[in-house]
């Protein structure tokens, strides 16, 4: 190896700072070599996540929760799933950050600094359920490509910020506006600056709802970088892909937004039911809007063992997209009979609702507890996998846990 190939002193210093120790034989390290300690960062430390979170992919980062990690009424950062389509932005400076409102249907293109957003518009706080459209994908057969989410790609944190409506109205909305589309600063995996990893949006009716926020705080603090610092669109009850992270521009469109991941089979399902594995033409695919009714048993953890004669107190959350959960039931006989759980009203629209029940088992043995929510339109969760679709979206089958009575 040639002399000039050896790592320079300056670089060694910054590597040592990152690793937190001197690289003892650093002078022998080849140029452009990335030490393993930096190559393979510990995602739990990097993103302050619980050790039981499951890493599905590290480029881009995709990490999911397990049901028992979602037991809190308001999800803490440590249990929030991470879903990225591109590379996490680096070197964000909140002081110089601006949000631009533009598009065919804006009256006047305008830019706002974060300070302007905070001082000019009223602050609102809501607990909002955000679930990835692909949550539950792992169960589809034939399998769907993409991250194999099981049950943990959902969270309900408390978000604070300004109403998107207030900002859009300040810039001015033309009569022909139909959709908004967000733009963010994360990089495409190819690092091609002309490509956006994702740019989605929603119809004006959703954009103008009270609860649709441009958030700058999560759970009362600055939003963690991985969840969209310094500014995030939050559209509760819709596929989480609408809730753009690291937002610096919102376009008011005179047509359905056509950014990456708005077209083809991305975040779309067949408008009519199809047979598993069937090919579906693009024009027969419909954009996912409100997410379907669903629930999760967050206590106990699946595999729990209790003593004969003891009562088991279960609890969890239920949500229903734009709707409310009106009924929550559980079954211990594989869905033959159902018993009602207690379910609380949501703290605000689009927040998940908490349920609980006390279960007495008839005798020793193996049981499964299944949970089923019904929404305000009377639609209940299916017991088994619902309609197959090419990308494996919208699996809202009943959550099940195993219990042994000894
Ligand atoms: N800028 C940007 N926003 C994004 C994404 C992304 O890759 N880039 N992923 C979307 C998808 S598909 C999901 S499921 C949610 C995940 O949000 P979370 O990582 O905060 O849980 O962010 C959405 N917003
Ligand atoms: Mo997603």
UniProtKB/TrEMBL annotation:
Residues 287-405 form the Moybdenum cofactor oxidoreductase dimerisation domain. Keywords: Metal-binding, Molybdenum, Oxidoreductase. Its cofactor is Mo-molybdopterin. Residues 87-259 form the Oxidoreductase molybdopterin-binding domain. CDD domains: SO_family_Moco_dimer (cd02110). Signal peptide: none annotated. Transmembrane segments: none annotated. PANTHER family: SULFITE OXIDASE, MITOCHONDRIAL, SULFITE REDUCTASE. This is Sulfite oxidase. It comes from Winogradskyella aquimaris.
């Amino acid at each position: 190896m040639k002399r000039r190939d050896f790592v320079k002193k300056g670089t060694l210093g910054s590597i040592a700072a990152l690793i937190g120790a001197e690289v003892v034989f650093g002078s022998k390290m080849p140029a452009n070599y990335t030490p393993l300690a930096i190559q393979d960062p510990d995602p739990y430390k990097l993103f302050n996540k619980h050790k039981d979170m499951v890493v599905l992919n590290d480029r881009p980062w995709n990490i999911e929760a397990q049901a028992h990690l979602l037991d809190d009424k308001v999800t803490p950062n440590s249990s929030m799933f991470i879903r990225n389509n591109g590379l996490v932005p680096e070197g964000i400076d909140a002081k110089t950050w601006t949000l631009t409102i533009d598009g065919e249907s804006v009256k006047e293109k305008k830019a706002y600094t974060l300070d302007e957003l905070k001082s000019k518009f009223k602050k609102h706080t809501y607990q909002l359920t955000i679930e990835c459209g692909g949550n539950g994908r792992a169960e589809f057969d034939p399998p769907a490509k993409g991250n194999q989410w099981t049950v943990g790609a959902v969270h309900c944190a408390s978000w604070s910020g300004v109403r998107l409506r207030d900002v859009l109205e300040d810039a001015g909305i033309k009569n022909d506006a139909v959709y908004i589309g967000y733009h963010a600063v994360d990089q495409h995996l190819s690092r091609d600056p002309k490509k956006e990893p994702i740019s989605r949006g929603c119809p004006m009716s959703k954009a103008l709802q009270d609860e649709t926020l441009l958030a700058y705080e999560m759970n009362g603090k600055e939003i963690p970088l991985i969840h969209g610092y310094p500014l995030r669109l939050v559209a509760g009850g819709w596929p989480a892909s609408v809730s753009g992270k690291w937002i610096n521009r919102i376009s008011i469109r005179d047509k359905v937004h056509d950014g990456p991941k708005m077209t083809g089979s991305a975040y779309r399902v067949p408008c009519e039911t199809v047979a598993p594995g069937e090919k579906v033409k693009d024009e027969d695919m419909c954009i996912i809007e409100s997410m379907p009714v669903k629930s999760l048993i967050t206590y106990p953890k699946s595999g729990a063992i209790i003593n004969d004669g003891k009562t088991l107190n279960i609890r969890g959350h239920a949500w229903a997209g734009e709707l409310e959960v009106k009924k929550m039931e559980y079954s211990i006989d594989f869905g033959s009979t159902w018993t009602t759980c207690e379910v609380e009203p949501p703290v605000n629209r689009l927040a998940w609702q908490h349920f609980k029940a006390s279960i007495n088992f008839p005798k020793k043995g193996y049981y499964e507890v299944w949970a089923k929510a019904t929404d305000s339109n009377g639609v209940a969760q299916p017991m088994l996998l619902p309609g197959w679709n090419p990308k494996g979206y919208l699996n809202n089958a009943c959550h099940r846990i195993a219990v042994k009575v000894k």
